[in-house]
UniProtKB/TrEMBL annotation:
Family matches, as InterPro entries: Aminoacid_DH-like_N_sf, Glu/Leu/Phe/Val/Trp_DH, Glu/Leu/Phe/Val/Trp_DH_C, Glu/Leu/Phe/Val/Trp_DH_dimer, Glu/Leu/Phe/Val_DH_AS, Glu/Phe/Leu/Val/Trp_DH_bac/arc, NAD(P)-bd_dom_sf
Record keywords, A-Z: NAD, Nucleotide-binding, Oxidoreductase
Binding site for NAD(+): G181, V182, G183, K184, V185, G186
SUPFAM superfamilies per the UniProt record, alphabetical: Aminoacid dehydrogenase-like, N-terminal domain (SSF53223), NAD(P)-binding Rossmann-fold domains (SSF51735)
Classification lineage: Bacteria, Bacillati, Actinomycetota, Actinomycetes, Streptosporangiales
The name this protein goes by in its record: Valine dehydrogenase
């Protein structure tokens, strides 16, 4: 098992909670990485992990990513994440979701949950019957609804900033963009890209997801798999499936000048960001450009306004350009620059929040 207590562990977390309820079949892990900026906010992933070790590793990585994502999104929220082990199509039930909600509630607001892979706004409504600390709810219950709307919009803004950096213009007109994964976020990104005049090529392991895009956008090209997509003649590669899309082999064959996508934890291992830089490929850090979704669900805490949330998500364009500027000034890859900027905010604001208020 990953040693979450060791001070040598590179991502020491504040709290890791293992949740089990035999009657409903719930097996879940909640990881709180950092609350320097406020309560930890992050979605609940419902996924059939091969092992509990795989689930633990994923939730620790995802919680860390949320801490950095929320910091760079300008939110007064820390980073956390939860995973439920199981097949959502087979194992999800009202009892299981409500049992999970009880565990979220037991943390007293240290962790606020939302949707992720395998969970939807309707599920969050059920979780909320047992916990006050739930966002990403349906519009019928005062929530923002599907957070993939602003996730895709934020990635689009990050892509525009990347194009500005590489090509001198934010327009994607005539650029060939490869989108790997056209699920909840990817298919919305395709729409935004086509509206801006980009040529789009896609792939997905789900034929159903591919057919949905084909029905709406028959002009979009389709390739067999991720290897064919990353080998294609692209201007921009957008990983929008699960993490680890950028490994040594992928980087070696990639022909795009820009990588900018919605998937979390795109870098398969440390050092990939340097390989991208050495090959002259601009990498827009995933947790920067895909933060539109968390901006959307976080806005529910104030009482949701799509206009306000969309305006915040639009600032991803400026944040991405700022990171590229820091990377150039400090001669580091953008991923390193993004980490430094996030850590600086967590440290500085976290220190201010340590001032005693006398109550």
């Amino acid at each position: 098992m990953t040693d979450v207590f060791s001070p040598s562990h590179k991502d020491t977390h504040e709290q890791v909670v293992f949740c089990a309820d035999a009657h409903s079949g719930l097996r879940a892990i909640i990881a709180i990485h950092n609350t320097a900026l406020g309560p930890a906010l992050g979605g609940t992933r419902f996924y059939p992990y091969a092992s509990e070790q795989a689930a633990l590793t994923d939730v620790l990585n995802l919680a860390r990513g949320m801490a950095y994502k929320n910091a760079l999104a300008g939110l007064d929220l820390g980073g956390g994440k939860a995973v439920i082990i199981g097949d959502p199509a087979r194992d999800k039930s009202e009892a299981l979701l409500r049992a999970y909600g009880r565990f979220v509630e037991s943390l007293g607001g240290r962790y606020i949950t939302a949707c992720d892979v395998g969970t939807f706004s309707e599920d969050m409504d059920i979780v909320a019957r047992e916990s006050r600390f739930v966002t990403g709810r349906t519009t019928a219950h005062g929530g923002a609804g599907d957070s993939s709307i602003l996730t895709a919009y934020g990635v689009f803004q990050g892509m525009r900033a990347s194009a500005e950096q590489v090509y001198g213009t934010p327009s994607l007109l005539g650029r060939r963009v490869g989108v790997e994964g056209v699920g909840k976020v990817g298919h919305r990104l395709v729409e935004l890209l086509r509206e801006d005049g980009a040529d789009v090529v896609i792939c997905d392991v789900s034929e159903q997801a591919v057919e949905r895009v084909r029905r709406l956008r028959p002009e979009v090209d389709v390739v067999a798999d991720a290897e064919a997509l990353t080998s294609a003649d692209l201007d921009i590669f957008a990983p929008c499936a699960l993490g680890g899309a950028l490994d040594d082999d992928t980087v070696g064959r990639l022909r795009a000048k820009i990588v900018c996508g919605a998937a979390n934890n795109q870098l398969a291992h440390p050092g990939v960001e340097k390989q991208l830089a050495e090959r002259g490929i601009l990498y827009a850090p995933d947790y920067v450009v895909n933060s539109g979704g968390v901006i959307q669900v976080a806005d529910e805490i104030e009482g949701f306004s799509m206009e306000r949330a969309r305006a915040k998500a639009e600032r991803i364009y400026d944040t991405t350009l700022k990171i590229f500027a820091i990377a150039a000034e400090e001669d580091v890859p953008p991923a390193v620059a993004a980490d430094r900027l996030a850590e600086r905010r967590m440290s500085e604001v976290g220190r201010v929040r340590g001032i005693w208020l006398g109550r």
